[in-house]
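Two folds, back to back.
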Amino acid sequence: MLLDSVEIHESVDLLADTATIVLPGAAINETLKIESKIKRGDTVLIQLGYDDELVTEFEGYLESIATDDGSIKLTCEDGIFQTRVPVKDVEMKNCTSKDVAAYLISEINQTAKNKLSLECDYEMKYDKFVISKAMGYDVFKKLQEESKGNIYAKGQVIHFHPAYLEKFGDASYDFAVNIEKSDLVYKKEEDRRVQVEVEGFGKDGQRVMVTVGTTGGEKRCVKINGVTDEATLRKRGEEELKYLVFTGFEGSITAWHIPVVHPGYSAKIKDADYTDKEGTYYVTAVTTSAGESGIVRKVQLGRKLA
């Protein structure tokens, strides 16, 4: 079957990695009736490469099919798709984010064909956590947004960890060799003045605020319902600062298919003209695009590691 394009987006800041596959609406003057052959929930494997040397870039499930503009667009989602099932309403008191995640897994496994398990070492304290008329996906998304943790699916395991602690691989880039273009800006830590205010709201309107960072610059506000524990709020603010305050590049580079790189990799950036600015960064997002012109990756750099 002919293929117009593939785009895969992965990010530590988003709950699910996604892929969009675009196919022509017709081939050899015959309309492709793809909806009779595939359906929502079917498994998807995307491999890309050259000269039959293929690399697995995405594994997940078909989320939707669109055939409205003369082409066929398949929207896919990684293993987090398995959490898109309703969970029972519950009010949990004096719990942690791990307790909530474990409850979600137990609920999802009530109807799951392939059972999920949980690996979690990030526990944010809640005075109260309410789930009402929600899917597991919605609640995991809330947990990720409130904790700034890294939640992702790997096989049948849902992972929940603090940001920047895991490393999945290494990649190396050189401005003279394999960087096609970039929008990088180099900044020093002392010039990144950021203050984070974390507000927690508890029972009966109780409000607790914790402030971390440096005054006189950018201010960010994070609000979390059901949390009044100061240590938990401070940890959440510190997680935010991890992304924002360091000496090094910020921005992205556009490179080729090789080297392989994904969020959670370290990316070493070399520049023969500015050796003092060389460094290794945590990759926060990767967009891989494939089409007639080849395969390219847009690599978003996060905090400097070394």
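---
second:
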Amino acid sequence: MGFFKTKEKFLIKKECEHCKKEFKIHNYRKDSARFCSQECFDKSRRIIKLCPTCNNNFTFPKYEKRKYCSLVCAYKGVQRGNCLSREVLENIKKDFTHLDIIEEYKVDAGSRWYFIDIFIKEISVCLEVDGQYWHCDERVYPPKYFHKQIRKTAQEIWDRDRNKENNLIQDGYIVLRIKEYDWLKDKQKTYLNIKEEIDEIYKNKINQTSG
């Protein structure tokens, strides 16, 4: 018993850098010991943050310096600041005031959930605004181009977009697309085309309902 009491005298007290609790260590570790346990050491290397897109907390290593919880949320976050997406939304809201138009809508397509850039509820239209960079427009990027942020090749991104569109169509949604490449080339023509498509879909819906 006396041995352990004597041994205790040689221990010094330190404060854990993570949990701030007091712990005891041998004198030779006074400069190197920073945490009271392996658990506190592991937690100190990670950050808990609120994702600005989905508003859920997520944990990640400090060295990654992340802002979003996933690539999907990162893409949606970038889209929010996309001038093209905002411009398209404002034009559609102005021309279709009688329709419920929702930005960044989450739809259920079978066993999958998808974020839609612009959703027109009454006619089940999913309007996707495809930026050249984030969707690797085929007229700009070769199939083997590797997108560092998405961590996929251009071909894989095209396949992903195609699968998403097919799943939405199979579940009864109508998918329309505006591509940044076309918008930059001829904004007026590109918007007029999409406006006419929405008009036609709405008229068909009204006719089906009245008939």
